[in-house]
Design a protein that fits this description.
The protein is an alpha/beta fold. It has a single domain, classed as Rossmann fold, CATH 3.40.50. Helix content is 38%, strand content 20%. Strands 5-4-1-2-14-13-3-12-11-6 form a ten-stranded mixed sheet, with helices on both faces. Strands 7-8-9-10 form a four-stranded antiparallel sheet, with no helix packed on it. Strand 13 and strand 14 form a beta hairpin. Helix 3 crosses helix 5 and helix 4 runs antiparallel to helix 6. The radius of gyration is 22 Å and the shape is globular. 37% of the residues are buried. The model has no long low-confidence stretch (mean pLDDT 90).
Length: 387
């Protein structure tokens, strides 16, 4: 997975994405970020998507529009236009690619999934304190949400090594990361599955109380399905990656989180990079972009390992040494801005994140630093005038 070019697809007039080890996508709401990475998922895993839908008695059929509605969600079929141009790693795709090949038997029984997708709407997967099944969603929900929720259900149903316990788990995630999530998100709360209502649901045991999911803080609720996604990808063994997965998409990992908690999530993303996943993140968080900016500068320096420990405020030990080992020398972060103008979107490579650039999109990190820069300028000018 190296290069995706898209023209005239949904709101996207032209997108040209070269994937790094970590690829960041930034831009305003409804600028096509989710549509693009859902398309990427379909391009990478079409056979597995088809197998999954057929498993739940959906008919793939021979009409591209119905297939697109099944995948992107009801009413979304027109995003793939007749004039759409899609090129993925130098192979071109049109709508007919979605169809079973005429006169040729296509077996999807052995299709494997290689891209794991954590959607922005992930809170809907556990909205009532338990992961929903695939079939509990109606056809208006995009495939990536339904499939993600079903995976969480399977994960909890099959157990994670300790009955009913969700967090903390000694064999899930590195200790430094568990500590970071505890300090920034759970604050010594213990997350469990509890059946006191007659149905196993999420609760938090903290300070002698047992608190139902609905009363958790917004950040804790938003983070929980993300945590379960991390569990799925990081098996409790010497195996570096989960099954056949090579790629991970995380939409808006910062949702509901304080900046300190976002830093903890970035540490977990670094851990996934160290496991040789390629990771794609859509984000509106300046903290994520600040990390990418610092990473770019540190790559050009020497003796930078200590700088990473200082940046993330973690202690040196075997686990953190492994986490940061060689990451600056071998990993690449690419950043793309989705520029929404006149109801059309064109992407721009802003990977340098150079605040001194003459290109405003690079200098203001795709609009993420616009307000801070403007506020600083206005206050500076005001103070100068008063002097």
């Amino acid at each position: 997975m190296e290069h995706l070019k898209v023209e005239s697809f949904g709101p996207i007039q032209k997108a040209d994405i070269h994937f790094g080890d970590l690829t960041l996508l930034v831009g305003p709401q409804a600028s096509g970020k989710s549509i693009l990475i859902q398309l990427l998922k379909l391009l990478v895993d079409k056979s597995h998507v088809r197998k999954t839908l057929q498993q739940y008695n959906y008919i793939w059929g021979k009409e591209p529009e119905k297939i697109l509605d099944l995948y992107f969600g009801e009413g979304m079929a027109k995003i793939w236009k007749n004039e759409s141009i899609i090129s993925f790693d130098n192979t071109y795709f049109d709508k007919n690619w979605l169809l079973p090949k005429a006169g040729r038997y296509e077996s999807v029984a052995s299709a494997v999934e290689t891209l794991f997708y954590i959607p922005a709407q992930r809170i809907l997967s556990v909205a009532d304190g338990r992961p929903k099944t695939f079939m509990e969603f109606d056809v208006s929900a995009p495939y990536v949400l339904r499939h993600f929720s079903e995976i969480l259900r399977q994960l909890i149903q099959n157990g994670m090594g300790k009955p009913n316990a969700i967090f903390p788990l000694s064999k899930r995630l590195k200790q430094s990361l568990r500590n970071s999530f505890n300090e920034s998100i759970f604050h010594d709360g213990r997350v469990v599955m509890d059946d006191r209502t007659g149905q196993r649901k999420l609760r938090m045991e903290v300070e002698g109380m047992s608190v139902p999911f609905i009363t958790w803080s917004a950040g804790q609720k938003e983070f929980l399905p993300l945590l379960l996604g991390f569990y799925w990808l990081c098996p409790p063994s010497k195996v570096r990656r989960k099954d056949e997965y090579k790629y991970v998409v995380i939409e808006e990992p910062e949702m509901g989180l304080h900046p300190r908690a976002i830093i903890s999530v970035i540490l977990q993303i670094i851990d996934m990079l160290s496991r040789d996943y390629k990771v794609i993140v859509s984000t509106h968080s300046p903290v994520v972009l600040e990390f990418a900016w610092a990473f770019n500068l540190l790559k050009k320096s020497h003796n930078t390992e200590d700088a990473l420990f200082n940046l993330f405020n973690v202690r040196k030990n075997i686990g953190t040494n492994r986490l940061f080992r060689d990451i600056l020398s071998v990993k690449q972060i690419n950043t793309f801005y989705f520029n929404y103008e006149n109801k059309r979107v064109i992407t721009k490579d802003i990977s340098t994140l150079d605040a001194g650039s003459d290109d405003e999109f690079i200098a203001n990190w795709g609009g993420i630093t616009d307000f801070a820069s403007k506020a600083g300028e206005i206050v500076s000018n005001l103070m100068t005038d008063e002097d």
